[in-house]
Predict the 3D structure of the following.
Amino acid sequence: MYKHRQIEKTIFETVKGFKVLPVTGARQVAKSTVLKHCDKSRNYVTLDDIDARELAINDPKLFLQM
């Protein structure tokens, strides 16, 4: 069961004006869960994926098209 977080309102307001929303923070604090729940119309990419990280480093324009 998903518990709504206080940050959701901020996320909804922020994504209206930006194409990319980087989220950082400590491990296991529900960053991924909140993002996946908030906006299912956007792509979710984690830099834990080695291929995605390499693409972001080597070809940022292509990475942002993911």
